[in-house]
Amino acid sequence: MEIKRPTWANTSPAMQDYYDHYWGLPVHDERFLFEMLSLELFQAGLTWSTIWKRRPAFEEAFSDFVVERVAAFSSDDVDRLLADKGIIRNRRKITATINNAQVIYKMQQAGQDFDDYIWSSVDYQPQRLILKPGEPLAPWTAASKKMATQMKKDGFKFMGPTIVCSFMTAVGLVNARL
Q1: Among this protein's residues, is 40 annotated catalytic?
Q2: pLDDT digits over 22-60, tens only?
Q3: Is 109 exposed, middle or buried (0-12, 13-18, 19+ CB in 10 A)?
Q4: Spatial contact of 4 and 177, defined as CB atoms under 8 Å apart
Q5: Choosing from 19, 23, 48, 117, which is the catalytic residue?
Q6: Catalytic residue check, 119
Q7: What pLDDT score was predicted for residue 117?
Q8: What is the reported pTM?
Q9: pLDDT > 70 fraction of the chain, expressed in percent and rounded
Q10: Sign of the torsion angle spanned by Cα atoms 114, 115, 118, 124
Q11: Nearest one of 64, 91, 96 to 78, comparing CA atoms
């Protein structure tokens, strides 16, 4: 069966693979949810293909996005990451990723799953987004604005409605697949 892809997903083999095997498929793995949240944060102001092609370097730099490990990063780790040419070297994005790992780790220590935290925002059901042919995805939605506000209240950093909207779509909270 041929997969119907939007234009952006046909720009390279890497983007085809991302669309075919990752984008918009419901995710419940907490490590991968944290990875995608972090990569979406790093994508702000850049193209997704720039981030996705650097994914292996990000995984290595951020200890495979294991929340407990990233939450324990020190100022020495920040310096190490700022010197890593394989990733996006932006101090605010790096420190926000570490902060977000700490927030998730505290949740987990208190008995709350990050998966439950994320999916509760859509009542545990992917929300269907139907677009007309050629219609672009909106940069943010009322749901992403609400979720971003809650995440900021809960201590997350660098979480605006646009980043959260991209995250929600990427991990299948919002189903915008063709």
Answers
A1: yes
A2: 999 999 999 999 999 999 999 999 999 999 999 999 999
A3: exposed
A4: no
A5: 48
A6: no
A7: 97
A8: 0.94
A9: 98
A10: negative
A11: 91
